[in-house]
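Ticket #4471: structure export looks truncated?
Reporter: QA, pipeline team
Priority: medium

Steps to reproduce: submit the single chain below to the structure queue and open the exported record.
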Amino acid sequence: MKTLIVDEKYNNKKLIRFILDSFANLPLNEFYKALRKKDIKLNGARIHENIVLHTGNCIDIYISDDILYQSSKDSNVSINIVYQDNEILLANKPSGIEVVGENSFTTQLIKNSNLDMLFACHRLDRNTSGLVLFAKSENSLSILLDKFKKGEIEKHYLCHVYGIPTKSTQTLSAYLFKDSKKSLVYISDVPKKGYRSITTSYSVLKTFDDNTSILDVNLHTGRTHQIRAHLAYIGYPIIGDGKYGNNAINKQFSKKFQELYSYKIKFCFSSDAGILNYLNDKEFCINTPLSRM
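Actual output as written to the record:
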């Protein structure tokens, strides 16, 4: 057990901020697990909520030292906040870290920002970098998830693929099955049991003499590995993709990770967005590491 006394700095601050500042490498899920199990006491009384603290409060924490002080391989992750206001935050996630989970990009953002909570509105693969949209409240999260579902928020990706599409723009529809045990997805042109519909659009931005091209991909449905699997399925694998791409091609271009980047998010509301109406028609872009752009 660890006992802490709340100083003036954390007066009227949430418990999560006090705990995460006190134990920098504590995984976020362990904090919430302790709350659920009532393994945190406030002034001798067990609590199960992320309450507001006051100067002089006594906090008893029943979490093992191994968890409280565990090292984090992602603790030095680069934090690049592109935009934030009272309701949302947009950040540029680096490659090599998950969006959510233990020692995730979300965890690092919370620890490095003066925030009590962030909710990821979508995810990127571990080795895909770029823009991730976060909500700062459950109300904003609910609105944004609804807008994603209705297709009123566009997510654009840049990717370097092997091959040159014959059509400069195309919208593709297919079906995707996720095999969680193998951590793989499969694409089908026809509906099958367990397969979910997907829609992916692309535009060709540049072509090169080495039979490669740069595509702008608009993700209409956000299924696991959708872009990588769908483009590989139609014959344009992303260079560097070790799971759905071609290893010989990856070696040819000396790429170990997929050349895929989330570079633009556009809000295009066609229905009421409540407290987020101010975002309508706004667009946020970042530069990507693609050397050929």
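Status: closed, not a bug. The export was complete when the record was re-opened. Leaving a note from the reviewer for reference: The helical segments are 15-22, 28-36, 65-68, 105-112, 138-149, 226-233, 247-252.
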